[in-house]
């Protein structure tokens, strides 16, 4: 472990804790999941927050809890309904894991989120971050956590210039050292994340507003933007897709994605991947062609969408309803059902753009 290159009189990080906590009590955002102590509700918020911005999560979280208010309700739900409530958040494996974890809680923990780290970690989809978050925030257990915000705050504050994966392991060690053992772990963890989310932001840290400004190594050295070191990025893949818009009265023709693989079982417009060669990028595996549907050359709509490192351009062409009776994996879906359907984010975007077309 690399030592921070701070001056010898730099205070012990533990002595700085009260400042960050005082800042958090004063400045924390009033978020709906901060008004509950229900471990289930907190767990759902943390699962959503791992991949999505707070502003987006608020609405999803409220709808999800209205729909599945308890562990039992989620455990008993149909998978499609859970996917529909998750639709647009991406990383759909996580939504499936939530339901599986709820079922495990009903079977093994009397329908409650377990308050022991090991039991929590044994649940589907519950990794070290989520376990630390729920245990500390909902149960006030002295559980540490690290997310991207925490890596950034520690790396800057304490001056760590290890490469990103190593910085993350280093941050876990700092988190374990600094998490309060005698109460307040939930507040401490949230204070760290909140500082990273609102002040110590990736590109424009507001050091002048930061409670750590006079002890921060990165600030003293003017290296805020260099720390933590950048994650190695997957190089961008440009994906060109062609989709069909086939309407018949109040219904549209949709395709269900295969089970297994990306966005498994979600619905989308019938889609064909033009480039790169579908064998090389499995985002949209080739399944069939609707060449027989005589699509218009001129697209009805052109959409741009990103999924992780894939940059997608989707051209939607109008096509005529197929004559065949057997059209699986396609199905006619009434437009009134689209809101409750397990659609992928891109499909939702496309259908919204096409909502005025007959
Ligand atoms: N990011 C994810 N969970 C958070 C929380 N509980 N507080 C602040 N930022 C977060
Ligand atoms: Fe981040 Fe600046 Fe605060 Fe350091 S002083 S922790 S770089 S916001």
Structure description:
The structure is a single chain. Helix 1 (13-27) crosses helix 11, helix 5 (79-86) packs across helix 6 (92-108) and helix 9 crosses helix 11 (185-198). The chain is 40% helix and 13% strand. By secondary structure, the chain is α+β, with helices and mostly antiparallel strands. The longest helix has 17 residues, at 92-108. Bound molecules: adenine and iron/sulfur cluster (SF4). Adenine is lined by residues 46, 49, 137, 190, 193-194, 197.
What is Rg?
Answer: 24 Å
Distance between the termini: 63 Å
Number of helix segments? 13
Q: How would a textbook summarize the main sheet?
A: 4 strands, mixed
Please list the strands of the largest sheet in the order they lie side by side. 5-1-7-6
Order of helices and strands: HHHHHHHHHHHHEEEEEEEEH
The bound ligands are:
adenine, iron/sulfur cluster
Mean pLDDT value: 91
Proportion of helical residues: 25-40%
Low-confidence regions: none
Q: SS-based structural class? A: alpha+beta
Tell me the strand percentage band.
5-15%
Outline type: globular
Total strand segments:
8
């Amino acid at each position: 472990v690399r030592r921070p290159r701070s001056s010898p009189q730099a205070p012990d990080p533990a002595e700085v804790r009260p400042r960050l906590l005082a800042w958090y009590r004063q400045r924390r955002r009033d978020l709906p999941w901060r008004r509950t102590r229900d471990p289930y509700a907190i767990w759902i918020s943390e699962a959503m927050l791992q991949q999505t911005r707070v502003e987006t999560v608020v609405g999803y979280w409220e709808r999800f809890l209205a729909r599945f208010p308890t562990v039992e309700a989620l455990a008993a739900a149909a998978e499609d309904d859970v996917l529909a409530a998750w639709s647009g958040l991406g990383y759909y494996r996580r939504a499936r894991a939530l339901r599986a974890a709820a079922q495990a809680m009903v079977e093994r923990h009397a329908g409650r989120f377990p308050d022991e780290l090991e039991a929590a970690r044994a649940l589907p989809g519950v990794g070290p971050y989520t376990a630390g978050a729920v245990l500390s925030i909902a149960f006030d257990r002295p559980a540490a956590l690290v997310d991207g915000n925490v890596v950034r705050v520690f790396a800057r504050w304490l001056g760590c210039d290890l490469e990103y994966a190593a910085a993350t392991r280093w941050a876990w060690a700092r988190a374990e050292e600094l998490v309060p053992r005698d109460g307040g772990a939930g507040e401490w963890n949230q204070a760290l994340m909140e500082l990273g989310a609102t002040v110590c932001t990736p590109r424009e840290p507001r050091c002048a507003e930061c409670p750590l400004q006079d002890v921060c190594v990165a600030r003293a050295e003017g290296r805020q933007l260099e720390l933590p070191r950048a994650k190695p990025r997957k190089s961008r893949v440009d994906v060109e897709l062609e989709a069909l818009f086939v309407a018949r009265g109040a219904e549209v023709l949709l395709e269900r994605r295969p089970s297994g693989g990306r966005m498994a079982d979600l619905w989308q417009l019938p889609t064909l991947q033009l480039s790169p060669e579908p064998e090389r990028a499995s985002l949209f595996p080739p399944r069939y062609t609707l060449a027989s549907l005589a699509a218009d050359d001129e697209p009805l709509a052109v959409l741009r969408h990103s999924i992780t490192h894939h940059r997608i351009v989707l051209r939607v062409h109008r096509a005529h309803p197929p004559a065949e009776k057997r059209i699986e994996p396609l199905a006619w879906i009434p437009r009134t059902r689209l809101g409750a359907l397990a659609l992928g984010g891109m499909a939702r975007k496309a259908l919204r753009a096409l909502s005025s077309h007959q």
